Every structure is written in structure tokens, then in C-alpha cells.
């Protein structure tokens, strides 16, 4: 069977069932994934994120996740066809890691916007902001809590604002693990060194402070007022 986290996060991409048997039967019909185009130019997020970082991050790092995911899925299909159980098990880590990397980055690009655009205006997320104020007391308190989570990530990972049945929560995920279960990813921040090091060196705090200037609050509002299925339908349409 496919790794649980990747299967849960991608079930809306391909119609896979949570059943291991159905997943194995349908693996042959999984589409080849491709690198989504950015909704802005590489230099559009400057000075918060440099054009050099954006180009490398998107065209090299994200492309590598896509390439490795497609290769792993192709090998997995062969392993299923030949009833190679050991081969299927051996490929699960690669599918989870690269599939998660593809999902996370695809969501990440969409939840960023040029600082001078209307999409980056917090006023465009009135419903979400009201819930943030209700949960944390104020936007500044929320920003402080989210920043603390981001800077507390050890090694590589992501920080996320998510919605579940109880309301809003701040979570972190390790490496390229995607947001799974019933949680709706509102927006995420990549805390891998490749997301900031060429520009900020070891100054993670400066990177985090500046990324708040390019959060796409319009997209965040749409994700908050929608469902998890809505988020992944929009994501699927861009891939």
C-alpha cells in the first residue's frame, strides 16, 4: 500500500481510496505530475524573497520533488505488477517524501503574493482575521505564536495555520510531511534552509519577519471559508 500520509493527502488528486487493495489496483492509472507555474514572476516577492532564491527553489528544488515522485510512482507500479512486495515497501519512503514536497510547495507558492498587491492585504481576509482574533486575542498575538513555532522547528520542516473541526490551530510538520487528516491548510511557511539561506544566511528570524509581508491573504481567506476538498481541487487544477 502507499504511505498513509501521502495517500491521505493526495486522495483528492487521483481518486485513490483509503483501501490498500484499491490503491494497489488504481496505482497504474495515477497521472504523471508536473511542476506548476508560479502565479507571479521570480522577482515579484522581492525584497522579502530574492529572485535568485525563488528561481532555484521553484525550478530546481520543487522540480526535483516532482521528478523523483514520478520515478518512484513508476517503479511502484512495476512492483505492483510483478507482485514485488519488498519493492513496494522500499518505495514508500520516496513516495511520501517527494509527494509531500510536491504538495507542500504547490500550496506554498499559492499562499504567497507580491507585497504591493491587493492579495497581500490583510483586510482581504476579514472572516479569517475575525477567527484569528477570537482564537489568539489579536493578530499580533497570532503572528507572535506562529513565528515562535516557525523558529522552534529543529532541522527541516514547515509551519502551518490549519482549520479543523475545533477551529484554527498552528502546527508544524517534519521534513516534507504534508498536512493530513481532516485539517484544512490555510497557509504554510517553508523552513528548509533552501527557502532562505542564500539571502538570509543563518538569519531565520529575519526571513520569518519578512515573509509576513508576502502572505496571500486572499488565498488564505478562500481556504478558510472553504473545505479541504476545495483546497485540493484548486491545487489539482494547477498541476
SSE map:
Layout: H1 4-14, H2 20-26, H3 51-81, H4 85-110, H5 126-136, H6 139-151, E1 157-164, E2 167-174, E3 184-190, H7 197-200, H8 204-211, H9 217-225, H10 228-237
Antiparallel strand pairs: 1-2, 1-3
Helix pairs in contact: 1-4, 3-4
CATH class of the largest domain: Alpha Beta
Radius of gyration: 18 Å
> What is the overall silhouette?
globular
Note the beta-strand portion.
5-15%
Total beta-strand segments = 3
Give the termini distance in whole angstroms.
Answer: 24 Å
Strand order of the largest sheet: 2-1-3
Defining traits:
minor pseudopilin epsh fold; 239 residues; globular; mainly alpha; Helix Hairpins; disordered N terminus
Please provide a written account of the structure.
This protein is mostly helical. The chain is 54% helix and 10% strand. The protein contains 10 helices and 3 strands. The chain has a 3-stranded antiparallel sheet, with helices on both faces. The longest helix is centred in the N-terminal third of the chain and has 31 residues, at 51-81. Belongs to the iron/manganese superoxide dismutase family.
Short description:
Helices cover 54% and strands 10% of the residues. The protein is built from ten helices and three strands. The protein is globular and about 55 Å long.
